[in-house]
From TrEMBL:
NCBIfam families: aroQ, PRK05395.1-2, PRK05395.1-3, PRK05395.1-4
Role of this protein: Catalyzes a trans-dehydration via an enolate intermediate.
Assigned keywords, A-Z: Amino-acid biosynthesis, Aromatic amino acid biosynthesis, Lyase
Protein name, entry field: 3-dehydroquinate dehydratase
Family: Belongs to the type-II 3-dehydroquinase family.
Pathway(s) it belongs to: Metabolic intermediate biosynthesis; chorismate biosynthesis; chorismate from D-erythrose 4-phosphate and phosphoenolpyruvate: step 3/7
Annotated site, Transition state stabilizer, chain positions: R18
Source species of the chain: Siansivirga zeaxanthinifaciens CC-SAMT-1
Pfam families, sorted: DHquinase_II
Residues the record lists as binding substrate: N72, H78, D85, I99, S100, R109
Keyword Lyase part of the UniProt annotation: yes
Length: 138
């Protein structure tokens, strides 16, 4: 059984409330409950933090023993060299995920410090972006 973790960064705890025109009205907990049932053959965990260092600590914790990490680092994608370095420093492959098409948004969102160190990038498919990332590992 594959062991995967979804790591969400800042403000993604507000899914379902935050800018529903961009992110939809489903909370991540509701989505995750559905995904866990759908992929019962995958040991799937979820972690969210608004704190950069906590995200890095989690990646260090799981980055040598899990089969895959799916990360939506939120705005840290575009600002955190440290998260990019953490991905470079671990062995577990990482897929970068975004709910929206970041290239269709503000220009500062076109830069990612995660992408150069990720196995792949999936963006713009709403919450289904996470499911596509799960498929990439199974």
């Amino acid at each position: 059984m594959k062991k995967l973790i979804i790591i969400n960064g800042p403000n993604l705890n507000l899914l379902g409330k935050r800018e529903p025109a961009i992110y939809g009205s489903l909370t991540f907990t509701e989505f995750f409950d559905t995904v866990k049932k759908k992929y019962a053959n995958v040991d799937l965990e979820y972690y969210q933090s608004n704190v950069e260092g906590e995200i890095i600590n989690k990646m260090h914790e799981v980055g040598f023993s899990y089969d895959g990490i799916i990360i939506n680092a939120g705005a840290y994608t575009h600002t955190s060299i440290a998260i990019g370095d953490a991905i470079k420093g671990i062995e577990t492959p990482v897929v970068e995920v975004h709910i929206s098409n970041t290239f269709g948004r503000e220009e500062f969102r076109h830069q990612s410090y995660i992408s150069p160190n990720a196995k792949g990038v999936i963006l713009g498919f709403g919450m289904q972006s996470y499911e596509l990332a799960i498929h990439s590992f199974i």
